[in-house]
Amino acid sequence: MRIRAIALFALFIMLPVWRDSGAAPAGAPTVDLPRDAIGGDRALAPTRTETLRVPGLEARVEILKDLWGISHIYAETEHDLFFAQGYNAARDRLFQFEMWRRQATGTVSEILGPRELERDRGARLFQYRGDLEAELNHYHPRGARIIRAFVDGINAWIAETARDSDLLPIEFEMLDIRPQPWTPEIVISRHQGLLMNIGQELNLGIAVAAVGAEQVKDVSYFHPGEPDLELDPAIDGPLLRSEILDVYRAFRGPVRFRPEDIAPRFRATASDGGTELALAGEAVDPWGPEGERLEAEWPGTGSNNWVVAGSRTLSGHAIMANDPHRVQAAPSLRYLAHLVGPGWNVIGGGEPVLPGISIGHNGYGAWGLTVFQTDAEDLYVYETHPDNPNRYRYEAAWEAMRVIEDEIPVGGQTAVRVRHKYTRHGPVVYEDRDNHVAYAVRAGWMEIGGAPYLASLRMDQAKTWEEFVDACNYSNIPGENMVWADADGNIGWQAVGIAPIRRNWSGLVPVPGDGRYEWDGYLEIRHKPHVFNPDKGFWSTANQNLVPPGYEHRDAVGWSWSDPFRSARIDEVLATGRRFTMSEMMQLATDYVSLPARSLVPMLRAVEPRGGSSSRDRDRAEAARRDLLDWDFELAPDSREAAIYVSWERELRSQMGPLVVPAEVRSQLGGLSLKKIIDWLGSPPTWFAPLGDGDPVAGRDAFIARTFADALDGLEERFGSDPWRYGDARFKHVRLRHPLSGVVNAEMRERLEVGTLPRGGNGSTVNQSGGGDNQTSGPSFRIITEAGDWDTAVFTNNPGQSGDPDHPMYRNLFEGWATDRFFPLYYSRDRVEAVVADRVVLSPDGG
To answer: Closest Cα to residue 422, out of 405, 445, 444, 397?
Structure first.
């Protein structure tokens, strides 16, 4: 009890406040333990101990679950360590495991009927069909043994639920299903990876065919350099259409449930709004690559990481900070664990269905990741034989497609037989038989080593920068910015991801599959951009363009990057020359300063705002303008100015699109880059001229005045008269949806969902909270580590570690996360012992 009291006292210490020019906002985040951290007064209750008999183990395993739900797993053998990781994660997140399994195996239509047949066909079409042993051992020299041990652990827990259905979380009863066994093939599925730009490639092709390459480049943001977007004359542009990638989108998209999928007593009715919620698409998939959709709609979203050398910190220890930005939902995408066994002592986060730790530290170094745009997909267009659609022209001959017969089980009817077709480049996704054309996707992630994040197993054991870079060389998917900070004070950055070498095209539009557009192998990953101990003493990545000038392998990296606002803000703070502390890194991770606001608001100085016909409206507009000009550009939840600015920024975005993007291609070109919008407003192009009687400057000023007035009208219409507040529950807030939220009754929805609480920020702030009113993307998981002083690490994981809506650790971290607080991530055994909530002993014989 004495040790517990010391630990609890430490958690309530308020860290220093940081305020000066160019620094993070006041009100430093705390390392905190809310009283309901694990459910009411249980935070101070005695540790619960249980012993479980688990056949398949080689020896005794101990799992210490701390106050925040992190499982610290101590095993005597490597096999048992990963067996226990699989067993324990499945115990916490079983419904998540089952939905992953069904998506990976193409068996969703078995429970949801024929509407999911296209998804299942896509999952099987893109299934890895190569050498399984070579695939498993790519990720680690003992990868096959590790992954099989992990799978055996998952199945051990599933077997227990088969004996006692009371162990199943409520979703299984709602859907009337039971979990099924796993195989290693499920772990290596590619269906949930961030796989990059095939959708953009088709959209650009459609747009170029409609309005020409130059007009597409005018409204897009490609860099560095200017890519070639011209379509090859052999491609019939008008035949390009969105449905070409329907099967690809189906297998990659979130599972959408309907009320009829749910047992009647849980089912939504029209009176409680459930059906409308489902149709609005708010019941998001917490495990899908939702970030890709959000990135397309709101350029600028993404992830942050940075490392600071020991020479730039107050302690002399290097610091690593990372907050990957993905979908925000309940349960969370990420899951933290601590793995301790022979040759392993690694802690951090990843996806619960994968062995190892993707982001964390191992007592030697700490590492994190963000997306580095790497184009590993291409859409090939083929001429097919008029008399045999299974043959396609390649060079001067006709080649036969490889055809695989398959059978997909479909609930409520007989199984459906399908035929998967493959060219030499990859799976055929669409056939236009009337025009004798077929389309296939070539994907680097179909090669050995294409399962997302599994190469982290090698990183988990790296002791030096050199060993870390060697491990990175196996990390094919996703394209990532891997950063490193070690106990010797070193820092580094290595871009990873399988990178096809294209010698004669940009990779941004579809190309003929006749042999003239072939990949010239892959760039060795270690030759992608990297740095080690940069002179400035820090390095940051936030999905921005980091391609060095004159980079010799320009053809093997992407052209499309996030807007630079988050990265510029991080660099602005880190470049101040001070020696930093962990507290300041937490403040930076939760920073709400908007650099776009800093650029846009001063444009109001020279513009007389329009405020309607009444003097009241004009006075309102002038007062709002003056207040913004005196504002600190911080999108804080309690800020009135933030409410005005964000409403105006949204008007600028929505009204600029119709002004500059041709109507026939607006659906293909998606959201405009805010960086481009700011550039256009700063130096107005001629398309502003019609708004200003032929004068682009006058037109630009009229556009600014109009959008500002519309923003104020919108605020008043939505929220009534001023004063407004950005963090209003009707404006910027967070309510976490569950995959079944939209199809269950109101009582069950409250049980599944988490929230509502106010939020700040938007898609351009370091504390990234997305572009909509409800935060559906952003940093649910964060980790900040001081290399060498490992027990000072902190984390967040929103809303909690458990996936069971009835478990106290399902939502215990939500309030702390929503108010920008952090929780301790203890590493040493004595610190862990001081904060144990549950002690679980797994034994092969029950002793």
So the answer is: 405
